[in-house]
Automatic annotation (TrEMBL):
GST C-terminal domain: residues covered: 108-233
A Pfam family it matches: GST_C
InterPro entries, per database record: Glutathione-S-Trfase_C-like, Glutathione-S-Trfase_C_sf, Glutathione_S-Trfase, Glutathione_S-Trfase_N, GST_C, Thioredoxin-like_sf
The organism's place on the tree of life at top rank: Bacteria
Domain GST N-terminal: 18-105
Lineage: Bacteria, Pseudomonadati, Pseudomonadota, Alphaproteobacteria, Rhodobacterales
Ranges annotated as spanning the membrane: none
Annotated source species: Tropicimonas omnivorans
Coiled coil: none
Protein's recorded name: Glutathione S-transferase N-terminal domain-containing protein
Length: 233
């Protein structure tokens, strides 16, 4: 049995089975990346619900694994050289899991680099920009009278959606084969309904994106992972 006692987070969220990957998450787009990847890769794991409240993500226990106080984070008891490893940042977790299993990175060396390219596109562009749109359009920032922040992030979201729309022309998946780039990207493309911002970004102008999101969420592993751990528990 693996010994995870060196990870203080396990004192607050104890492992029932320390021999499997421990996932600390919440079903936001970033959280969904990790749980969906674990499901797609058929890796045994145990999910711990870490809410977005300060009492969870800013607790000493969680900060011991992720000093950046963001979900998701994982502990793999069978890390490099058989030693346990803790990781945070959803993109890093996706790369780690894909490389651990040698899956979801495409079928060629070129696919692998293109997968990383589109993963970085999501991490550096789609996630931050769509997140800012959510803040200024649907959440606390919507009360700001100055329209410029909303206009900026609506326009940037439209630009990014147009990039994805073009890349998906003639493709089912963003690289060609299904990869971790899709697992990173599709959950974030699904946020406009939650933000009630589809009309604002002109969602109907991006039919390839719309079909892509539907195709992604129809995958059985995605259906299992999209609400793991559940938001309510």
């Amino acid at each position: 049995m693996a010994d995870l006692s060196s990870f203080p987070i396990t004192t607050r969220w104890p492992a029932k089975d320390p021999s499997v990957i421990q996932l600390y998450s919440f079903p936001t787009p970033n959280g969904q990346k990790a749980s969906i990847a674990l499901e797609e890769l058929s890796l045994p794991y145990e999910a711990h619900r870490v809410t977005l409240k300060d009492e969870d993500v800013k607790s000493d226990a969680f900060l011991s694994l992720n000093p950046n106080n963001k979900i998701p984070a994982i502990i793999d008891p069978d890390g490099p050289h058989g030693e346990p490893i803790g990781l945070f940042e959803s993109g890093a977790i996706l790369l780690y899991l894909a490389e651990k299993t040698n899956k979801l990175l495409g079928t060629t060396e070129a696919d692998r680099y293109h997968t990383m390219q589109w993963l970085m596109f999501q991490m550096g562009g789609v996630g931050p920009m769509f997140g800012q749109l959510g803040y200024f359009y649907a959440h606390g920032g919507k009360e700001i009278e100055d329209p410029r922040p909303r206009e900026r992030y609506i326009n940037e979201s439209r630009r990014l959606l147009n990039v994805v729309e073009g890349q998906l022309d003639g493709r089912d998946w963003i690289v060609g084969p299904y990869t971790i780039a899709d697992i990173a990207l599709a959950p974030w493309l699904n946020v406009f309904g939650f933000y009630e911002a589809k009309d604002a970004v002109g969602w109907d102008e991006f039919p390839n994106v719309e079909d892509y999101v539907e195709r992604f969420f129809n995958r059985p592993a995605v259906e299992r992972g999209r609400n793991t751990p559940p938001a309510e528990g």
